[in-house]
Amino acid sequence: MASILTQLAQEKSAGELRTMSNESLKWLMAKIADVRGVRVAKSISNEKVRQVNKFILGGLYCFYYNPKGKTDLPYYDQFPMVLALERYNDGFLGLNFHYLPIKYRVVFLDKLMNFATMGDAGEIMRMRVTYDILTASKRLKLFKPCIKRYLSSHIQSKILTIQPNEWDIAALLPLQQFKGATAPEVWQDSVDELRKN
């Protein structure tokens, strides 16, 4: 998967990535339907997207979120796509891929694949990456705009697990729901932050 992601990032134009993102969006929408609701759409495959009550470190999740102190934030994502890194009593630390432009997400996910834990059949199980690993590596500096702390009490929906064999699809999804700024404005801030470092 990693080499496919790198090739995609290098060969596809922004327009092509947007088209692919729309196709990916249709895929996920068919899977999660009404994430705010109690019921899950019949089209969701238990092998692909599952509802969970807690996070497994190294897994990728989507959920609706209402941040504490949101009035003090310049912007925030109501529907993060987060790789869980560290667990706390009141929540967790994670990487919200939505803070990166889609092309950057693909590159970052490709680099993170070096930390994938493989199953017996050679399938990816989860990521074995920590905050310490991210801060120690110059190759992983794309994490900086993505690192966010989430409080369990502010999660507003079911937690959906995106299975590792579909992380590459999920990376292309334009599911971000930013409040306080448009996605291009947030992405420009992220790119500016990365250029400073």
How would you describe this structure to a colleague?
Helix 1 runs antiparallel to helix 3 (102-112). The protein is globular and about 45 Å long. Mean pLDDT is 78; it is low at 1-12 and 32-52. The two termini are 28 Å apart. It contains six helices and ten strands, in the order H-H-E-E-E-E-E-H-E-E-H-E-E-H-E-H. It has one domain (2-196). The protein has helices at residues 2-11, 14-32, 102-112, 131-136, 167-171, 183-196, and strands spanning 49-52, 60-62, 76-77, 81-88, 91-96, 116-118, 124-127, 147-151, 159-162, 178-179. With 197 residues, it is an alpha+beta fold.
Features:
197 residues, alpha+beta, 6-stranded antiparallel sheet, two-stranded antiparallel sheet, globular, disordered N terminus
Overall number of structural domains: 1
What amount of the residues lies in strands? 15-25%
Share of residues in helices: 25-40%
Structural class: alpha+beta
Number of helical elements: 6
Q: How many β-strand runs?
A: 10
| Main sheet: strands, sense, barrel | 6 strands, antiparallel
The residue-averaged pLDDT reads 78
Major sheet: arrangement of strands: 1-9-2-4-5-8
The unreliable regions are 1-12, 32-52
- The CA-CA distance between the termini, in Å, is 28 Å
Shape: globular
Q: What's the gyration radius in Å?
A: 16 Å
The succession of helices and strands, N to C, reads HHEEEEEHEEHEEHEH
